[in-house]
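TEACHING EXERCISE
Course module: macromolecular assemblies
Task: Read the component lines below, then compare them to the predicted structure of the full complex.
Student: A.B.
Group: 4
Components provided:
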Amino acid sequence: MAPPSDIQELIRENHLPPRILLGPGPSLCDPRVLQAMAAPLLGHLDPAYLKLMDHIQELLRYVFRTQNRLTLPISGTGSAAMEAAIANLVEPGDAVLICVNGYFSQRQAEMARRYGGQVREIYRSWGEIFTLEDVTRALDEGPAKIVCLVQAETSTGVLQPVAEIAKLVHRQGGLLIVDAVTSLGGIPLEVDEWELDIVYSCSQKCLGCPPGLGPITFGPRAEAVLHNRRTKVANWYLDMALLEKYWGPERVYHHTAPITMNYALLEGLRIVAEEGIQNRWERHRRNAQLFWDGLSDLGLVCHAPLEYRLPSLTTVRVPEGVDEAAVRRHLLDTYHIEIGGGLGELKGKVWRVGLMGYSSQPENVILLLEALRREIG
Amino acid sequence: MAPPSDIQELIRENHLPPRILLGPGPSLCDPRVLQAMAAPLLGHLDPAYLKLMDHIQELLRYVFRTQNRLTLPISGTGSAAMEAAIANLVEPGDAVLICVNGYFSQRQAEMARRYGGQVREIYRSWGEIFTLEDVTRALDEGPAKIVCLVQAETSTGVLQPVAEIAKLVHRQGGLLIVDAVTSLGGIPLEVDEWELDIVYSCSQKCLGCPPGLGPITFGPRAEAVLHNRRTKVANWYLDMALLEKYWGPERVYHHTAPITMNYALLEGLRIVAEEGIQNRWERHRRNAQLFWDGLSDLGLVCHAPLEYRLPSLTTVRVPEGVDEAAVRRHLLDTYHIEIGGGLGELKGKVWRVGLMGYSSQPENVILLLEALRREIG
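Instructor-supplied answer key:
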């Protein structure tokens, strides 16, 4: 016999369904990360919390592969970190070149326009990369103070090489901003070796933490531009000149830090360091390969060509005659598996499967493959 | 015998000291709120999460005492919510009047200037309120499209009456933005009855949640201004036109919500509703009175006069010859009690004691009084 309706209501209210998160993010969290958030709060100027901030910065430098002094988590999601990069570098009238081949590069362009940038866009279709020649040609037509590139496009599943383009951008006197939202902690990224000027990311993908923080790093060229601005940054909350006084030795109050989110990030970064960053990259690659091989056995086709396919996020073409939304709903309702639908130009055409952070495990791969087999078989 | 040094290092690394948070925020959290964050993640477009968003909005309307449709938590701290209010209302050239009598009204002015507002400031010393006559005089000199007021000034401990000023601002065709960062959930606040146009707050004070979210509400006049802007909001992350499409029935992806922080907020709001908002106001008032009476017995003087003294945050004058920073450090090191120092003009002159949310308990009051007695006795 079912319990009475008021009891049922109480059960429903507090019940969070189980989920195996294999979409474009958030990904699953290690239980250690979730438990870290249950620790009691410290004040944002407590000596014990300030020490913890230092540890976060040190571990962020480890995962970014950088010595950059100005490396910290923005108190907002990855989109806030994207906006921090653009708001702090772009002044009204600045020439900005955006390489648009997906949803998130479109967002960079939208933000750069809002900060008064003279935005020029070059295009590649959603699923292609930009070549060195593409960027050379664009910069030959006119230099750019800032060039924006997405290393790991969450909307297309494409991995964009960035090291050679950074050198090209520097040669004509500009700076490169790189979106590493879907790569940091899961895909090789070498901020110092590749001479990247600003790189930003998020907490909830390959770092395996909940959403809410946006790690960012500014290299020496970017710091110089920051300190030579003619105008104040239009955005107060994301103004790096104010943020660096809180994160630096001065410890000047700016905003009340999201203490608990930073507990989670610290624990997540410790887990990355315990695994070793290169081992983590290799795990992401290995589980992606397992998934790609399985897709091929099922007769399913990846949207991005193998030579620049992103291990952390795979776009799978929806076969002719299949209702992609119905499949996603069924996976969620029956097996508690979340995968993503297509975004922008690829809406309705692909599924987006993330194998990131704690979600990147062989058991999740073979479970999803079997579930897909039953859906479309 | 002490454990070997490598074991000691391990202990230190993971040890968070206990804290009784009686400063200007964050305040302590109910263990239920902390535990809520340990729940596994849902995706930000999961039907179960969307339902939870609806519950948060409904409960926020309950604590704001409003029917405003556009009521939601900003994915950043209280400062981000302040910026959301200003960025969305102020267009370049708009006449903005800021009533400056503390640190956070100065911040409103700084932000309004960054968004191109023609900012006029009127002043009262730190510890006084603005009268109806002050604002009448300022608006007679020239109308303002936007007037900013801080209901509960965290830097001075002053409670500013706002209802009559709202009517005044409306009569000359403007809108009132109210800072309720240190009042929401602890001090009477009647958004609809007082006809306040935009009110923003934070999660970590009287709501008793960790820092990281900024509840905000827009009334009908503010919505109208929002929908008739001539220019795009300069700030993409805080653009209400984009945020309302995610929080509204369209559910259009904007940014990946801080899922876990919203679990905490929902649990915190449920606790507020269980207690009853009026009972909660009364509890804050009662414990403040207990504290004020005890201070008086110790011969200590409150900076703000009784008639407009804030129950949630008390500024206590530092007695002649006492090293205020040494007292704070000693309270923290010996009794694990955090209180705040003075900010801005009151730096070195006052202590700031918060009795907010879960921290507002008689045992905390009598403990702090006894600790203070031992410090200065």
